[in-house]
Design brief:
Helix 1 runs parallel beside helix 2. This protein is of the alpha/beta class. Helices cover 31% and strands 14% of the residues. The strands form three sheets. It has a three-stranded parallel sheet with strand order 1-2-3.
């Protein structure tokens, strides 16, 4: 998604206001569906600069980190061109592998997982929680 990431329903864009129930619900919905959410930060005519940029980018990073996606941005301003960010996203997708595994427990309850690799210079990106059933990680 291309977005400013600001949650207009959560009140202030203050740095101290980083616990949005709407963002948390979106994360849990994506985790239950097994969807990795990636985004490109792009501010709009609404909330701009300063705290809004920080708040929006923080939410986008939180969603990406917890779902196994990527949050792409170039500082707090809009990118001059989306080309480099789309290329970075394309590269990340082309280096994606799927791992299937079985978890224990109810298929309705989200369970925390931890991923790691013994390969040198390999960085893994995965959701923090998955639904308790056969699940595919990216």
């Amino acid at each position: 998604m291309v977005t400013n990431g600001v949650d207009p329903y959560n009140g202030s864009t203050s740095i101290m206001n980083q616990d949005s129930p709407y963002v948390q619900a979106a994360i849990q919905d994506a985790q239950r569906a097994g969807v990795a959410v990636s985004s490109i930060y792009f501010g709009d005519a609404g909330f701009r600069g300063g705290r809004a940029s920080f708040s929006g980018q923080s939410y986008l990073m939180q969603v990406a980190d917890e779902t196994g996606g990527h949050a792409l941005y170039e500082g707090t301003g809009n990118p001059v061109s989306l080309g480099p960010l789309l290329s970075e996203f394309r590269k990340a997708i082309s280096e994606t592998y799927v791992a299937s595994f079985v978890t224990s427990g109810s298929s309705e309850k989200l369970q925390r997982i931890q991923t790691e690799s013994s390969l040198h210079k390999v960085k893994l990106t995965a959701p923090q929680f998955v639904r308790g059933e056969i699940w595919k990680a990216f």
